[in-house]
Amino acid sequence: MSKKIILGFTGLIASGKGTAAKYLVEKHSAVSFRFSTILRDLLDRLYMPQSRDNMVNISKVLREEFGQDLLSKVMIKDIEQADANIVVIDGMRRPADIQDLKDLPGLKVVAIEVDAKTRHARLNKRSENPDDQTKTWEQFLKDHEKETEITIPDLMKQADVTVDNNGSLEDFYKQLDKLVK
User: Fold this and answer.
1) CA-wise closest residue to 171 among 119, 85, 112
2) Can you tell me whether residue 84 is helix, strand or coil?
3) pTM over 0.85
4) In the chain, what are the domains?
C-alpha cells in the first residue's frame, strides 16, 4: 500500500464525523469508508429498516460470531484497495476498531468533540436514520448507553488529534484543512 493519509474519525452521536468525511471527499478528493455502511448494506439486503437499533443488533451478532475485529478487517481491505491519497474512516467506535487499524501507515485517529445539546440539535436537523428528526432529548441520551456508543469516550482519549466542532462550519473546515496539511 502506497503512502496515504488516513484519518480515522471517532466521536459521539452527531459530532460531525460524516460532515468531516463529506468535506474531505469534496475538498481534498479523499475517499471515505464508514463502518455503518457495511451494516446498512446488510440491513438493506435483509429488507430491514436502517434504524440505530437494527444496526446495533446486527453489529453485535456479527462481532460475537465472527470476532470483534470483523468490521475493522473489512475496513483494512477497503483501504488497501482505495486509489486515493487521503482516506477517511468515519465512525470508529470500539477498541477493536483501532487495534487492527492502528498498524496502517499514515493513520491518525481524530476525536471530534461537541457538547451534547449542540449534537442533539444537529441530529434533529439531519435524516441519516429514520428517527433522527423526531428524537427527543431523553431518547438521545438513552442512545449513548447502547453497546455501540459506550466505548467511544475511551477511544476519544486515545486519539492523536482532537478537533472542536462547537463553532461554525467554517471553523470546523479550517481545522480539517490543517489536519490534511
Assistant:
1) 112
2) coil
3) yes
4) 5-180 (3.40.50.300)
Decide if pLDDT at 1 tops 60: no
Predicted confidence (pLDDT) per residue in 56-78, tens digit: 999 999 999 999 999 999 999 99
Locate 163 and state its grid cell.
Answer: 478537533
CB count in 10 Å sphere of residue 134: 8
Distance CA 48, CA 50 (A): 6
3-state secondary structure of 163: strand
Cell 486519539, located at residue: 159
Contact 51, 129 (CB under 8 A): yes
Amino acid sitting at position 78 = D
- The answer to whether residues 137 and 120 touch, using CB atoms and an 8 Å cutoff, is yes
Cα angle vertex 11, ends 133, 171, to 5°? Answer: 85
